[in-house]
């Protein structure tokens, strides 16, 4: 369906006030994007916060390719992610652009190389075993809550290594609460007067506590006589900064660590929650995974993870703000426009995925998904730096869960996606019935 174009050449879209559109888009993107696509065609525009931001949603593979292949100096992702600034900090990789982003990514990249990720595997396996030992042997659970606890423990151990358990005990619930911010809190944090009132004042206090904790960890790591032998991410980043003339300052390190902790556990926990919901709804697929695991394979399990991320993308869209006029899909958009590849719409395109509403891991067997039709980690120069780590972690966790438990659905097993910061988690926190194997 071709979209209608307004007199200024911009696609048409809803005419609701910008604040209303922002709240609806952040709260229920899984409903807003398909509804707008049906009403206005694709691409369509949304008027979002901050005031005056016009976002054009695209989904056609050719349009997505234009965005991801576009020059990073023109397609700025940092400005597109402005809503995350109060949570992640000024120097977060997700908020940087241009030379600043390239420098930070160069310093962070070695920590996410193939060898390093395989080195983390044993730690992820160890933490997963410890956490699953605390799960009930059987009964109904809200899997998303359990996975959040598990993945937060993984990322804290991976980022900080073996550290004072009492300090981690103190910071763990504060991190969990800060990351749990909903759309109203996320939007309100950008309005300074609101920060004096609850719930924004509590978010401000929580972030200050986390920042103080991170600062103490950075200082302790810099002074650690055993620094050269440590393999945790903080140690790798501190060593890289010390060896590089353009190394990260303490504040830059703090913001990058905040990004790793906040984004590195919530997204994986949510992906796991959607995965177990689908496995509980499809016992035949679950049995095939269990048989493959028993035989020492992971190919089908990997396909299950990819299909879950396709059907239930954790992040609904990618944002790029144009620094100069640019052409996407044959249309030239003006400077200041934000172009947004819609992950939800791209993952539901019948041309790329026949019967797109069905859960079918077979789509990904033997095929590498194309970066313009499967984009849960974004794409181009801004593709998530931790994508390979997330897939490894997901495979380890899901394998251990299926080795211990039979997953049965609760009711229909369907749960509507609900917004939490900028992620979409199952409305009822992924209710499943656990039975021991």
UniProtKB/TrEMBL annotation:
The keyword Kinase does not apply. CDD domains: CYP110-like (cd11053). Its cofactor is heme. Pfam families: p450. Transmembrane segments: none annotated. GO terms for molecular function: heme binding; iron ion binding; monooxygenase activity; oxidoreductase activity, acting on paired donors, with incorporation or reduction of molecular oxygen. This is Cytochrome P450. It comes from Dietzia natronolimnaea.
